[in-house]
C-alpha cells in the first residue's frame, strides 16, 4: 500500500508542476517576464503562490523552466521526423518544412524567445542544459548535409549550424514580424497564400545555398524533390 500511496503523491506533484508550467507559459507569453506575476500564474494554474516557490524556487527559475520546456517540446517533435540519408535533398526540405511549421503552430515559442532576447538571454544562460537544446536538430542537419556532400549534391564545407541559422532566421523573422511587415508592405503576410509562398522561398534559398557548383536542387511544393544536373 505504501508504494502505491507514494506513487500517487508523485503523480499529483507532477500534475501540479505541469499545471504551473502551462500557466506560466501562457502568462509569460502574454505579459513578458517583467509583466508576468506569480499571482497571475498561480491563479491560472488554480494553485497557490507557495506551490510555485516550492516547485521552482523563484520567478526567474520558473521562467527558465518554461523556456527549457519549450525547447524540450521542440526537440521531441524534431526527434519524430523520419529522414532518409539516401535522399538528402528530400530530407533537407523536410527539415525546413518542419522548422517553419513548428514556429507557425507554436506562436508562444516565438513570443517567449523574443522576451528572452529582450533580456539578452540572461535567464536561459543560467540553464545548465542550454547548449543541448539545439543538438537534435543540428545532428539531423549534419547527417543530411554529410550525405548530400558525399553524393556530390551539396558543396563543402557546410556547417550544420550555419544552415540551421539560415532556416531559423528566415522563418523566425517572417513570423515574428509579419504584422508590422504587413503594414509596411501594404499586404497581408499572414494569409495562407503568403505563408505558403514564403515557405517555398525559404526552401529554394536554402537549396541554392547548399548546392554544389553545377547542380541545381529543385523541390516541388508538395514534398517531392528532384535533382537536375547543369552541364
Task: Give a verbal description of the structure.
This protein has helices at 2-35, 38-44, 49-56, 59-79, 88-105, 107-118, 135-150, 160-185, 192-210, and strands at 215-219, 225-229. It is mostly helical and 231 residues long. It has 2 domains: 1-57, Homeodomain-like (Arc Repressor Mutant, subunit A); 64-229, Tetracycline Repressor, domain 2. It has a two-stranded antiparallel ribbon with strand order 1-2. A hairpin with a 5-residue loop joins β1 and β2. The longest helix has 34 residues, at 2-35.
Key terms:
mainly alpha, 2 domains, 231 residues, two-stranded antiparallel ribbon, Arc Repressor Mutant, subunit A, 4% strand
Task: List strands and helices in order, with pairings.
Blueprint: H1 2-35, H2 38-44, H3 49-56, H4 59-79, H5 88-105, H6 107-118, H7 135-150, H8 160-185, H9 192-210, E1 215-219, E2 225-229
Antiparallel strand pairs: 1-2
Amino acid at each position: 500500500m505504501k508504494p502505491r500511496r507514494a506513487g500517487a503523491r508523485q503523480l499529483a506533484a507532477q500534475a501540479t508542476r505541469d499545471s504551473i508550467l502551462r500557466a506560466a507559459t501562457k502568462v509569460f507569453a502574454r505579459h513578458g517576464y517583467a509583466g508576468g506575476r506569480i499571482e497571475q500564474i498561480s491563479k491560472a494554474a488554480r494553485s497557490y503562490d507557495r506551490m510555485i516557490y516550492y516547485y521552482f524556487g523563484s520567478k526567474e527559475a520558473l521562467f527558465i523552466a518554461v523556456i527549457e520546456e519549450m525547447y524540450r517540446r521542440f526537440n521531441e517533435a524534431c526527434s519524430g521526423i523520419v529522414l532518409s540519408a539516401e535522399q538528402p535533398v528530400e530530407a533537407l526540405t523536410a527539415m525546413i518544412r518542419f522548422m517553419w511549421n513548428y514556429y507557425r503552430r507554436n506562436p508562444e515559442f516565438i513570443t517567449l524567445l523574443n522576451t528572452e532576447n529582450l533580456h539578452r538571454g540572461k535567464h536561459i544562460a543560467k540553464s545548465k542544459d542550454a547548449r543541448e537544446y539545439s543538438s537534435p536538430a543540428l545532428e539531423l542537419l549534419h547527417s543530411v548535409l554529410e550525405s548530400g556532400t558525399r553524393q556530390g549534391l551539396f558543396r563543402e564545407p557546410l556547417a550544420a549550424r550555419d544552415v540551421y541559422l539560415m532556416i531559423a532566421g528566415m522563418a523566425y523573422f517572417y513570423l515574428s514580424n509579419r504584422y508590422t511587415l504587413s503594414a509596411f508592405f501594404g499586404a497581408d503576410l499572414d494569409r495562407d497564400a503568403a505563408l505558403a509562398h514564403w515557405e517555398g522561398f525559404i526552401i529554394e534559398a536554402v537549396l541554392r545555398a547548399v548546392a554544389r557548383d553545377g547542380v541545381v536542387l529543385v523541390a516541388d511544393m508538395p514534398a517531392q524533390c528532384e535533382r537536375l544536373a547543369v552541364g
